[in-house]
Request: fold
Amino acid sequence: MQNSVPLSGSPETPALPAFLQKRVPKALCFFLMLFLAVSFAVVDLTLTETPLWVSSVLEVGLLLLPCAAVLLFSRSRLPLAPISAKRLLFVTGMGVTGYGFTLTLNSSWALLWTFILGTDTTEAAQHTAEQMQSAPLWFLILVIAVTPAICEELFFRGLLLKSYAAAPAAALCMSSALFSLLHYDVLRLFPTFYLGMFFGWVVMRTGNLTAGMILHFLNNTFSVVAMKFSYTFLERFGGEIDYDLLQQILEGNPKLTMQLLSAELILLALILLAVPLFILLLIHFIRDTREDAQRIHLAALNVIEKPKKLYSILFIILAAVMLCMAFVIQNTM
Reply:
């Protein structure tokens, strides 16, 4: 397989960044993705109400180890490097302030598809609530935030983006779509795709996979903390909110009513404040990464080998099949 043209470090022919050098064969990447799609589908269809630690084992066994094996086989490497303090500030800030967008998208999309599909998620939600209530916060962060941030970023923003690096836009869309579909959850389909696009865009702007891991970790950590406190609150009402009982409690306790109202107003103010902060950080991030993005773009134009249409079509077919499987799994569990 022919690789990239050796490039010098001059502005006209910039040196290739790490994720453009020695790319992973697309055939190998496709069959690995096919294996993962089947494996995760079988797990989702056969294993119900599994302990949370099982997901970490699956992430390591089905994502991290195959990814490492493919990189070793192809003698390739991923763009993992320390991130500068300035970019760490931008990336962390965007991850923190952007969570409001993610939360809104998640809630809106979940409500829409719950209404369209008529899916009863009460039993699954109850099982999740029980695990969230019983497990310590550090364990939840380790399983739901740390492990996916490493394993999923290495595979989707590392291996898949690297395989199609000569066509960045196609690589970004394809890796984000497969990242979303491999969760096999229609209720999180679009929000997960949006996150995959954002994570991948940041990785491609910086040429550094560490930035994607930080964003992924922050998003999942916020979700874990939010769910942990939400389920703790619901536990006081027997696992679900009895609005009549809640109204009676609030009517008889003006102080509690004011505290709840104040908390809601503070939360709303924080969300409204986060929007301009996110936009401001995004603008500064784009300016800070402009030169790197241009260098990566120029380097990609000098790559001889372009993605073959056959593998692009196969990945599209695979995505369509996974979408159908997601609907089947959502309606059978």
About this structure: The two ends are 44 Å apart (CA to CA). The CA atoms of residues 242 and 248 lie 10 Å apart. Residues 1-14 have pLDDT under 50 and may be disordered.
